Amino acid sequence: MISYLQVENITKSFGELVLFDNISFLLAKDQKIALVAKNGAGKTTLFNILCSKDTPDTGSIKFHKDITIGFLEQDPLFNENYTVLEQVFLSSGEMMHVIGEYENSLNSGDKKRIASAMEKMDAFSAWNYESKIKQILGKLKIDNYEQKMGNLSGGQRKRVALANTLIREPDLLILDEPTNHLDLDMIEWLEEYLKKSSITLFMVTHDRYFLDRVCDEVIEIDNRQLFRYQGNYSDFLEKREERLLNDNLNVEKARNLLRKELDWIRRMPKARTTKSKSRIDSFYELKEQAIGRSTEKQMKLNAKGNRLGTKIIDVKDLSKSFDNIKIVENFSYNFIRYEKVGMIGNNGTGKTTLLNLLTGALKPDAGTIEVGTTITFGYYSQNGMQFDNNMKVIEVAQAIAEVVTLGDGNTLSISQFLNYFLFPPETQHSFVYKLSGGERRRLYLATVLMKNPNFLVLDEPTNDLDILTLNVLEEYLLNFKGCVLIVSHDRFFMDKVVEHLFVFEGEGKVKDFPGNYSDYREYKTNKEKQLRLTEKTEKKNEIVTNKPAKNTIKKLSFKEQREYDQLTLEIEQLETEYKELELSLSSGNLNNEKVIESSHKLGDLIKLIDLKTNRWLELSELQP
Questions:
Q1: Among residues 108, 338, 376, 411, which one has the fewest Cβ atoms lying within 10 Å of its Cβ?
Q2: Which helix (H) or strand (E) holds 175?
Q3: Architecture of domain 3-91+128-237 in CATH?
Q4: Within 10 A of 45 (CB to CB), how many other CB atoms are there?
Q5: CB pairs under 8 A, 24+ apart, for 180-185?
Q6: Edge to edge, what strands does the sheet with 172-176 contain?
Q7: Mean of all residue pLDDT scores within the chain
């Protein structure tokens, strides 16, 4: 078993905050490992250490010396003046120089230079490289290759970075939240790509379906230690539960022993012997174990929203466009009590626009939105997270409310509510600027929920949240007595929470689908199969009836362009050889045997030139 990555006894802390302590693990060739942990436990820090952007306090990181490594960061840096294609080619290293030399050789017309460049193209298997680049960019919905990097959105930049990493086909791929900023089609394509690839993978992700279908091992950072679980996400859940149960049993056992030791130490004579000192030392060790790791919170919130009236939100013939691009057209829907609706669709199809229309942040071009008098919105928006970094976490929450009222009439203090959302007391008294990105997201979510809204509008609430927080949020929403409207690319989350979907199909069309995401995916797959079957049947009928196919505009592929260029050279060489042979035959200097041999060769040359010329003519018709 070849070890691609060896992490040995590394520790990392920031002041008094210890993220992980003396952790070690190996990543072997062909393994696909996912790292999971609570926000703030050190996932991004560990990633930065692997990328050499940070260093551990102790320990070492060793990569196999003969492998190539690809890193996908959360916020990649680019040359802002490069086009998308220039940036991708730049990341391709020597391959780019080989393709560039080939392109320049064709422009020069120098046959020797062309031949040399073609040999290098063969050696690097570069002929299909450009088409491969464009295929991956296309799957990631990057189709404007001439757009400047500086003009791209954050999501587009992340997708270009992902394309860069995949195109290079490194031996070891290290990815930090690769599914962020991808729509559902892209996520499923990437999932399939990595699942079928022989690449070795280490990634940080909170996408549970992605993790379950791609990875064969999960490692977890918990309480500053590292735990390994063989298998996918489903196996991880089972084995983690066993570990926590075992931990809790050990804690309970230590508590029972502690009671006995406490009784003994209280009755102990004042004259302390060596033996009694030993028992006192054991007592304090047991005390540490007994206090040790507390069991995970099992508290359930019976989430309360303000009272809902009979009228929720009535939408009629709603339309909105930007620069003549239809975002929503003639959309009508009457919301009912307690329904939980998911919103899915490709990026840019109008999901956030509809949320802003419903909450009054945008005005429609046409149509009406009637909001019931009892409706109180709680809006978790992508750009709404604004905190004073010099405030403490609990101060941020107390500025909103002192207590949170539950559905059963009971109340929680703000400290208890924050604890439910995985902010323990020590974190509650930390300053906001010390929080990780995921912890800030979690705090923002808690501040939205503690206002007791009865209509929750959540725009990508699952981005940057860890799996444990997602579980807490899912439980909260399932118990929530109000309406929920969610945009999310987390398929697991959508399957667990929503009852039906608004599917954004583009060009302003929004379809109401009765089911969760997996139901919709199955419906869509069956529909696509039926469409392919229909097309296949129509094609057969077309052949039988000799119906001419419709003319389509076609351009040379990269492979065909290579064939065209090679044929040009080969035909020239064959024609030169033909002329030389023809001169030799007409010279009268050949004996009978050579004349016969040369005549046969001349006939073969004519056939070969005709064959290659016909193919050259076919390809030349496709030349622009």
A1: 108
A2: strand 172-176
A3: 3-Layer(aba) Sandwich (3.40)
A4: 20
A5: 180/74, 180/463, 180/464, 181/154, 181/155, 181/156, 181/347, 182/140, 182/489, 183/141, 183/345, 183/346, 183/347, 183/489, 184/344, 184/489, 184/491, 184/517, 185/346
A6: 69-72, 172-176, 200-204, 32-37, 217-222, 225-230
A7: 83
List the structure tokens of 74: 């959360």
DSSP character string of 200-224:
EEEEE---HHHHHHH-SEEEEEETT
**Calpha distance 546→622 (Å, rounded):** 24
Architecture of the structural domain at 313-515 = 3-Layer(aba) Sandwich (3.40)
Q: What's the pLDDT at 254?
A: 63
Cα radius of gyration rounded to whole Å, the chain = 33
- C-alpha–C-alpha distance, residues 389 and 435, integer Å: 9
pTM (2 d.p.): 0.72
Contact 202, 172 (CB under 8 A): yes
pLDDT at 203 over 90: yes
* Residue 80 CB burial class (10 angstroms; 0-12, 13-18, ≥19): exposed
Instruction: For residues 113 and 101, give the distance between their C-alpha atoms in angstroms, rounded to a whole number.
Output: 9
| Residue 540, number of CB atoms within 10 A of its CB | 10
- Residue 145's closest CA among 160, 132, 155, 126? 160
pLDDT at 546 over 80: no
Give the bridge partners for 3, in sequence order: 28
